[in-house]
Specification:
With 493 residues, this protein is mainly alpha-helical. The protein has 3 domains: 14-154, no CATH class; 172-261; 277-492, no CATH class. 78% of the residues lie in helices and 0% in strands. The N and C termini lie far apart (108 Å).
């Protein structure tokens, strides 16, 4: 007697098989998203990730309800655009994901963020893959992707990737207006030779950011712990408050008035120069920030002690941002004085002023570093309650204090060169120091030779030395004053 196996094609077409795969896929995805990702402040891809973002931002409903609400208009549009079979299977997949996610109230006990990210990715990816093996989908982006593919031949995978990229940048984009307002407001005050006001605003925003990171990101002092979402929104709120305070002070000092804005004729003639200066400045900021993102990844993947190392690095950077506020003030001063000297057509005075500011700043901040050196552990204990994190924070501060004269020199010299319009020099110096020195040394010593966080901390010290020496060489040997705009007197016309 010959046994006959069920036809594979018939099995894939059967309703029970498709419903089974959609259910198992929805269960796997929901476990990854609701039981792992949501408890660590992570974002998943697709519409459920958008639901998580809405939940993080407002605290209303649940991620499952957000997912359902966003899906409703998508299904209404899809009814007129796709086949009925794909529609109803996708509707079932979406409802199954909503119901199962709503029923999951427990948390998978994974404390390590890296392991949690891997687990959430595997579960969500497996669930999505199973649902895509059916005659339907999990709803959401797949519906939109099918419609776009039919109408404009846009690849479904390309659309999903683009949507996820935009979604993950949303939290950052929300903070851009505040960042721009802070930067432009500080520049206006510096141009009016009022450098203390933007310094006070920066201190206020920095302190708020530190408090928010520790309270809502790490859950210290009894506050709820929101993880990465808490860190992101702490930055957003602190920057927004700082921007609002900056604008209020601009109005109060009559620097934000109609007569403050230049005429269109001046804008049209000055635009090429502004772009020439702003382009390298943007590149410096972008490459610097992305370099720090890579440094975080290197720290988070260390062979030993990566969790405490990452916490120590984060806490140490917050302490550093407070300690180096005087250096920022010196940088603002150098930028203003150099810009005014060059505007008056006096390059020799500009160079002399920059070097004098450099000497005063390095000497003063070095004395501050020497004063706090014996109190590194106590300073770390004020912010980090966990003993292991205190040790890592103190270790980071040790390398950071040793780097004080070089860090201050980099900040002050970059400020002076930016004030002269020579933004291309900080771009080359900062980018090379981060991408060609800091990151390779961090990986080599952190992952290969020493295999701990000391390799990462060493990389910051060495890169600051390289950065400061390169900028000093530019200041002494290059014709950086040629980038500045100078006043044209009537007699020279």
């Amino acid at each position: 007697m010959k046994l006959s196996l069920p036809n594979r094609h018939k099995l894939s077409q059967s309703m029970l098989w498709n419903v089974f795969l959609l259910t198992v896929g929805a269960l796997s995805f929901s476990l990854g998203a609701q039981a792992v990702a949501a408890h660590h402040g992570f974002l998943t891809g697709g519409i459920f990730g958008a639901g998580l973002l809405g939940w993080y931002a407002t605290g209303l409903f649940t991620p499952a309800i957000w997912y359902l609400l966003i899906n409703i208009p998508l299904f209404i549009v899809s009814w007129f655009q796709i086949g009925r079979q794909f529609f109803f299977y996708s509707l079932y997949g979406s409802l199954a994901t909503t119901v199962i996610s709503g029923l999951i109230t427990f948390q998978v006990p994974i404390q390590d963020h890296l392991y949690a990210a891997i687990t959430a990715g595997v579960l969500c990816g497996a669930g999505t893959g199973l649902m895509l093996r059916t005659l339907g989908s999990g709803g959401g982006l797949d519906l939109v992707g099918v419609i776009l593919n039919r109408k404009w031949n846009i690849g479904i995978g390309r659309f999903n990737f683009s949507f996820n990229a935009v979604m993950f940048l949303t939290a950052t984009i929300w903070g851009l207006p505040g960042q721009y307002a802070l930067t432009i407001g500080a520049a206006v005050f510096r141009a009016a030779k009022q450098v203390l006001i933007p310094l006070y605003v920066t201190i206020t925003a920095c302190l708020l950011n530190v408090f928010g990171d520790l309270a809502f990101g790490l859950g210290w002092w009894g506050f709820p712990r929101y993880g990465a979402a808490g860190l992101a929104y702490s930055t957003l709120v602190s920057v927004t408050i700082g921007a609002a305070l900056m604008l209020l002070l601009l109005v109060r000092h009559r620097l934000f008035a109609r007569e403050s804005f230049p005429a269109w004729r001046w804008i049209r003639k000055g635009a090429p120069y502004l772009l020439k200066v702003a382009g390298p400045a943007f590149g410096t900021s972008f490459l610097w920030q992305t370099g720090y993102m890579v440094l975080y990844v290197i720290t988070a993947s260390l062979p030993f002690g990566k969790v405490n190392a990452l916490a120590g690095l984060t806490t140490g950077l917050r302490v550093e941002s407070i300690l180096f506020l005087p250096a920022v003030a010196f940088s603002m001063t150098a930028s203003v004085l150099v810009g005014h000297a060059l505007g008056e057509g006096n390059p020799r005075e500009a160079k002399r002023t920059l070097l004098a500011t450099l000497g005063i700043a390095c000497a003063g901040m070095s004395l501050v570093g020497a004063a706090i050196w014996p109190w590194r552990m106590e300073l770390a204990g004020l912010i980090a309650p966990d003993p292991a994190v205190q040790i890592e924070t103190a270790n980071y501060l040790s390398y950071n204090i040793l780097a004080v004269p070089f860090t201050v020199a980099s900040v002050v010299l970059a400020g002076g060169l930016n004030g002269a319009g020579a933004t291309v020099y900080p771009l080359v110096s900062f980018s090379a120091a981060v991408w060609l020195v800091r990151l390779p040394i961090a990986w080599l010593f952190g992952h290969v030779l020493w295999q701990d966080a000391a390799g990462v901390y060493l990389s910051t010290l060495v890169s600051q030395v390289v950065m400061s020496l390169s900028l000093l060489w530019v200041t002494l040997r290059c014709r950086w004053t040629r980038f500045a705009l100078t006043a044209r007197h009537p007699s020279s016309r």
